[in-house]
Amino acid sequence: MIYPAPALHIAGRWLTQASGGERYVYNPADETPLGVLPLAGAAELQAAAEAAQRGFSVWRARNAHDRYTVLRAAAELLRVRAEAIAPVLTLEQGKPLAEALREVRLSADILDFQAEEGKRLYGRTVAPRVDGILSQTVTREPVGPVAAFTPWNFPANLPIRKLGSALAAGCSVVIKPDEQTPATCMLIVQALLDAGVPAEALNMVCGDPAEVSATLIAHPAIAKVSITGSVAVGKLLGEQAARHVKRFTGELGGHAPVIVCDDADPAFVLKASLAAKYRNAGQVCASPIRFYVARRHYAEFAAQFARGAQALRLGPGMDPQTQMGPLAHARRIDDMERFVDDAIDQGAKLLCGGRRVDRRGFYFEPTVFAEAPATSRLMQQEPFGPIAVIQPYDTLDEAITAANALPYGLAAYAWTRDLATAHRLGRELEAGMVGINHYGVSQAEMPFGGWKESGVGQEMGSEGLLAYTEVKTITVGVPG
Ligand code: NAD
Q1: Can you name the CATH fold of 8-252+454-474?
Q2: 289 lines ligand 1 (CB under 6 A)
Q3: Which of 285, 352, 365, 459 does the annotation list as catalytic?
Q4: Could you tell me which residues come within 8 angstroms of residue 281 by beta carbon, excluding any fewer than 6 positions away?
Q5: Strand 256-260 and strand 288-294: pairing?
């Protein structure tokens, strides 16, 4: 069996049993159990936070170059182990194996970049305002032990975004991956430990999510909270962090618009859009959802989009023929059905899909709607699944207004061959990431984060590292 026995990493030891009980981890492709996950109770959560406190003293005392060497070595281990980690990721999450392999390799790239950035945690010197001052410096120090929460949709990439930056800055971590996808995170934690991260600086827990977050966030050892997840849970954790005046980063949900301009090449846009939309069965925070298409291209674009969606081969992620895997769990199917029923009730046109697939596993048909009313749930809430909606527009002003109309502001995309329009869209779309003429907004070197309710702060890029630091000013006067 390539799926490892699920375990928690607390205070330097892997635990296969814990006081919070246990739960099964299921394979979404066929609903069979993969393993039994121990759940942390109050005792283990306390132990994890205390270990992170001790681990922080050890790890922060290492010099930046030393930490860089360890994290670079961990990135190499991820590359060497990628072909062993990827099937585990596919088994517990469902995405096609090729996507899983790419995710693990990209995670190594993110870790590399943050390791490098750790050597460049620059400060500055400031000219004194008064006499008798020898130096005035502004420095950055690691913020302290971090409580990190990640969802199941990118079980390698999302933990590494937090672990890479936190560890590169000199912080220790207690990470809670989603209970559906613990094993990928275990293998990442193991690679970091094998490369030399001190055992107590890196803890991994799973449990009852509300209990884990409330306990860790309130614990005096925890200095920073970082969550990737839905807007609703992000608000909850943000409130808890604020109550204790703890630093907070929230990478939350999105509802990405795509503007296909009058001068775009619809065939080119279509090919890229189908691949982006149905990657990971649409369970991607930056997934394109609302396509606003210039009236001239609208009818043909919508018809071809539906044809392309219908032609996708669904199946288990372990099958090399599969283009779209199952959804991650049964609740996602129920949610898709609610989006579809509401859109139909409100008069949207269903162009294809809309149903659960009649086979074992959590499969849902690639679905395309057109002309959905602004009041429909689909046009207001993140579907987080394989559903796209195609809307015609007449003027670019109208399209930009519609694109910016929601409280989300994670990613936005546009397609145009006109340079002035490209720059206008870059300026006017209200999102943390704007992709013009491609969908590749997630890169190790570039900050990734949401505007409006889509989040607070960024990950990756140099901003990702700074999020795990505190600013300190030190001023030294002439003695005696
Ligand atoms: P979720 O909010 O349900 O869960 C995220 C994390 O919070 C998990 O660890 C989960 O166990 C925990 N959690 C869940 N309920 C909780 C509660 N009541 N109290 C405390 N913790 C709780 O999100 P999800 O459904 O697992 O993931 C999908 C969401 O994540 C989508 O909205 C997606 O857009 C978002 N996401 C955002 C980004 C980004 O970078 N902005 C990236 C990936 C996913």
Answers
A1: Aldehyde Dehydrogenase; Chain A, domain 1 (3.40.605)
A2: no
A3: 285
A4: 94, 95, 324, 325, 326, 327, 364, 385, 386
A5: parallel
Determine whether 352 is an active site residue.
Answer: no
Query: Which residue, among 424, 15, 18, 456, has the nearest Cα to 208 in the 3D structure?
Result: 18
CA atoms in the 13 A half-sphere facing the CB of 458: 20
Catalytic residue flag (residue 261): no
Q: Residue ranges per domain, the chain?
A: 8-252+454-474, 256-443
Q: Whose CA is nearest to atom 13 of ligand 1?
A: 209
The total of other beta-carbon atoms located within 10 Å of residue 350's CB is: 16
Strands (E), 11-163: 13-15, 22-26, 33-38, 124-125, 133-142, 146-149
Quote the pTM value. Answer: 0.98
- Of residues 50, 117, 251, 382, which has the active-site annotation? 251
Longest dimension (CA), the chain: 83
As averages over each run of 10 residues, the pLDDT of the chain (480 residues) reads 94 98 98 98 98 98 98 98 98 98 98 98 95 97 98 98 98 99 98 98 99 98 98 98 98 98 98 98 98 98 98 98 97 98 98 98 98 98 98 98 98 98 98 98 98 98 98 96
CATH of domain 256-443: 3.40.309.10
